[in-house]
Amino acid sequence: MAGMDWLWNALGAKKGRNQKQSKKIVAEATTVADDLAALSDAELAEYTRENVDVKPAFLAALSVASTRTIGLTPFAVQSQATLRLLDGDVIHMATGEGKTLVGAMAATGFALKGKRVHLITVNDYLAERDATWMRPLVEFFGLSVAFITEKSTREERIAAYKADIIYGPVNEIGFDVLRDQLIVRREDAVQHGADIAIVDEADSVLVDEALVPLVLAGSVPGTAPQGHITDIVRGLKAGKHYTVDADGRNAFLTDEGAAVVEKALGIDSLYSEEHVGTTLVHVNLALHAQALLQRDVHYIVRDGKVQLIDASKGRVADLQRWPDGIQAAVEAKEGLDVTEGGRILDSMTLQALIGRYPTVCGMTGTAVEATDQLREFYNLRVSVIDRAEPLRRFDEADRIYATAEEKMNAVVEDVLERHATGQPILIGTHDVAESEQLAEAIREYDIDVNVLNAKNDAEEATIIAEAGDVGRITVSTQMAGRGTDIKLGGADESEHDKVVELGGLCVIGTGRYKSSRLDNQLRGRAGRQGDPGYAVFYVSLEDELILSGGDGESVTAHPGPDGLIEEKRIQDFVEHCQRVTEGQLLEIHSQTWKYSKLLADQRVIIDERRATILDTEKALEDFRERAPQRVAELEGTVDHDVLVQAAREVMLYHLDMGWSDHLALMDEVRESIHLRAIARETPLTEFHRIAVREFKSLVNRAVDEAVETFTTVLIDADGAHLDDLGLSRPSATWTYMVGDNPLEKKTGRFIQGVTDIFR
Ligand code: ADP
Ligand code: MG
Which intervals hold domain Helicase C-terminal (predicted)? Predict the structure, then answer.
């Protein structure tokens, strides 16, 4: 990829200096490794511990240990990459170059220095696979390694988090953080802190999914369904009764639309004091479900249930729900039973989760393209690692067609032609509906097609592992099977040479993605470890990217008879549309983060407060100040430790419920901020003003309520009987991830809004 140096330089990624330095160290390590070969295992482990800070010696020892334990001798580029991780960078290292081993070597390095490492993966399957695969290497040095998955029990998690190196999917690690933020006894905590996060598929976690909130909810009877509002909204017409903004993220009633709804409901005004917080919210939710969420694009209906499709992965996301209102609105739209709601107890974005680690580093095949985001949001640098073997993949220029139909016909034709030779083909689509359509079109010719939009990462991995076999056609959405190697000639490589002769794996994209980074992810599936390969993208001028990125600009093209456009000018235009979209995404990310950041900072303040209450007798002392008589009374009858714990539970109950109320309120504010914002203030400013004000009152209120409860609740040898007052904690909790939360993307002044009201 030497030809891309200009791009790396332009993006400010590091290539030159560090690469040179680390190459020198790795060369030294190679000589040291020869001397170490004679050592026994125990001697080698001892030698490593003594030389953790001597880079060549340390790398040499890792290399020898890796050969002995897992049978992989690290390539020089893997050792270089390990050094860059240990320096806290995100490494750009192509697919199939062996990042799993790199991550394990770096984790071992950190752990040998006494740090606890979370190795963060994108799913359960990879956490288990990588921990199991790398275990012998880690254990060789007397370190412990563990993994967690969605299936892990509480006890298993407690044990796993004690290990030196823990592999876990990002959402499960986040859910454990959320649950730990609600404990009432310190010993109930599942996690025990971590010093380092090594993030695999770093661009996916840190950029694409960064603002996905992880949610912890508790059981509460459901909110009322809104059947007849749904029916009224169903009758509204786009453009007449409502408008959808250009990027499809918000829908608004027009005056005419509002009038229709008001008439049908028999009310004066949706915007009156009486209806603005209730009826209007329901109408907006129904409109959102109706106008913005499309069946088979954003969700599917299966077994009488709405199942979300993860936008960036294009797959069914099993445990996901939308925020309650939207979920209920979609269920109502589809005529399904509206499921019971819950109370959101806490939530946290992946970006906030990652922000908790003192040190973050990561690895991905496409880091360079995310340089701006990694710097802006995480202050991380990118280090580019060369390939072990030169790239032998041929990337063809886009094939651009006038219409979507002509494009799809051309894709099918191309697939048929290539398939006739036996060349394996992997097709990347944009959503589930498109995958299904394309697979159907190919199956009409009596050809087998594997479609990846599976429910199960392990199943998906098995299918994708075979995608390089002779005659295979695999249709996949964006993220499907990420992390699994596509070997030529099948997973056992039995037909390897034949597939090499056929040109290796052919990758076809059915349209440019929203960023060139995602395009490159797909391309990277072909040409691994010096294999031959081929990649091409098909584009039509009707693609969403072109329509929105081109912002309605009219382009005159001169297509050939089959619709193919071969003008350089149009190729440039496609690039332009993608760059515009990338810019918009970055802007949305910045803006959205400004909303989330304040709440994340407020959550930190709450959690610090919780820590004091958990670890000290502060709660009882506070009550002693505010209700001295009651404390004196109880001290006569109840054991001191019991009383401390009772005070703690009372205080935490009100603090936690207060926080939960705060989140609900701020969610509502965020939804309706464009209605509330007054002319002279931007929505963001207004949001911050309200958030700061409400946070102050939340804390004061929580303390007042706690004092009230403490003076009235029965406290005996069994502790505080909060249940008697109907103040029990939710008996069941569950967790889920929310899809993209659309926000206002107007720029606004950012107000530093966190006040430390606990001092
Ligand atoms: P990546 O995460 O970079 O896409 P993986 O870690 O999944 O790559 O590894 C891809 C393949 O390369 C695996 O089959 C692995 O066994 C192989 N591999 C990795 N390192 C080495 C090595 N040093 N020697 C031989 N094979 C290796
Ligand atoms: Mg990988």
Answer: 403-581
- The dihedrals phi and psi of 719, each to the nearest 5 degrees, come to 100, -160
DSSP 326-390: HHHHHHHHTTPPPPP-EEEEEEEEHHHHHHTSSEEEEEES--GGGHHHHHHHH---EEE---SS-
Nearest ligand atom owner, CA of 123? 2
101 lines ligand 1 (CB under 6 A): yes
In a shared domain, residues 54 and 115: yes
Residue 667: both structure tokens together = 């969610």
CA dihedral of 287, 737, 213, 340, whole degrees rounded to 10 = 60
Q: How many distinct structural domains can be found in the chain?
A: 4
99 is in an annotated binding site: yes
In angstroms, the CA 672 to CA 667 distance is 9
Which atom of ligand 1 has the smallest separation from the CA of 487? 14
Tell me, yes or no, whether 271 lies in a domain.
yes
Read off the pLDDT of residues 677-723 as tens digits, 9 standing for 90 and up: 555 567 888 889 889 999 999 999 999 999 999 999 999 999 999 88
Question: Is 739 labeled as ligand-binding?
Answer: no
CATH classification at residue 285: 3.90.1440.10
Tokens in use for 551?
Answer: 């912002």
Identify the burial level of 575 via C-beta atoms within 10 angstroms of its C-beta, where 0-12 means exposed, 13-18 middle and 19 or more buried.
middle
Q: Is residue 757 in some structural domain?
A: no
What's the confidence (pLDDT) of residue 228? 83
| Residue nearest atom 19 in ligand 1 by C-alpha distance | 98
Q: Inter-axis angle of helices 99-112 and 124-140, to 10 degrees?
A: 50
Q: How many CB atoms lie within 10 A of CB 399?
A: 18
Q: Mutate which of 91, 105, 134, 485 to test ligand 1's pocket (most atoms within 8 Å of Cβ)?
A: 485
Tell me which residue has its CA closest to atom 9 in ligand 1: 98
Q: In this structure, which residue's CA is closest to atom 5 in ligand 1? A: 98
Q: Is 69 annotated as a binding residue?
A: no
Displacement of CA 126 from its chain's centroid (Å): 15
For ligand 1, say whether the CB of 521 is within 6 Å of any of its atoms.
Answer: no
334 and 377 belong to one structural domain: no
pTM of the shown model: 0.82
